[in-house]
Amino acid sequence: MKVFVACFLVLSLCCGAWAQEEKPSAAPEILAKDMREEVLRTQATVKDMFGRQETKPLPITVYRPPGDGPYPLVVFNHGRATREKRASQGRYRPEAAARYLVAKGFVVLVPTRIGYWETYGNFDPENSACKSIEPMSLAVSEQVLATVEFAKTLPYVDASRWLVAGQSVGGLGTVATVGRAPAGLVGGINFSGGTGGNPDLNPGRPCNPGATTQYWGEIAKGAKVPMLWLYWENDKYWGPDLPKTWHKAWVDGGGEAVFSAFGPSGSNGHFGLNEDMDHWLPVADGFLGQLGFDQSAIVKAPPPSAFAAIDAAASVPVGTSGKAAYAKFLEMALPRAFAVSSKGGFGLARGDYAAGRALGNCQRYGNPCALYAADSDVVWKPQ
Question: Across all residues in the chain, what is the average pLDDT?
Fold first, then answer.
């Protein structure tokens, strides 16, 4: 299901969530205050497929829980847009997934890798020319490890316990990192990982998929921690069958990974990370629970409260702009959710993981929020 979100303040500020890494929002950047979002920088040294080596700045987006920590770490990696779209691939902000992980008790560090955003230009360490995928895999992995080294300097991070996760080429780098067995790594989550896909020209038929099969089978012997692999049936980059072949190569090579195949999501299941949270969240939550991270984090709507009728807009504890937004909420199709803050702010969402997104859209401005309505029921109770 395609995701539609909107969020509002009493000052009528509005923001949109990234639907995928190829479409950064053009809206003014507003940091998520509830997760203390900030951008820090370190440096990383990487090589391209021709052996050219460069050291460049590595911007890292930080999301973290309240308090001083130290908290365990997740390094979360973005994908790679097709060539014509990569120039506009801005800072990666997986806000909805990060909010779940922060609620789970993790600090989330998100490197926007070399060759993207601020460092987009004439050095592209992830260009594989559809040949060997080892150089690009190592380039991504080296930046993961540089992020972990940087995390060791942050007092609120416990870098002795960390996970690596990522989508698309970020998933490719996740697999490569697990295969290298770095110190402190306890697991990895691969969302739609792979390389060489072109959904517009060759949907479901990436170039040289055998290189991925061979490489992942080879590096699996070094893996020491479990993985979770998440793929969607209508992935227009890889199709439904290639990921299963890659998974078999990984397991046959000695790696440990649970493969979760989901049904179609939206127009392109490659972006299920953002568009199908209702399905992948419980699976990922179970995986993290098995690793000992069992803190409750998935947002679920409470039962109806009978505080007011769903269409009683005058009862919603928000100001004029909030009531106007609530009127729009009432026109939305199900599933939908509306949240209110302690300061009169609000957030709403329709579609996938509506309750979690609405609550996040509200609380990202730093004030405590609660769900007011979910689908056709008012669930809010006065504090």
Answer: 91
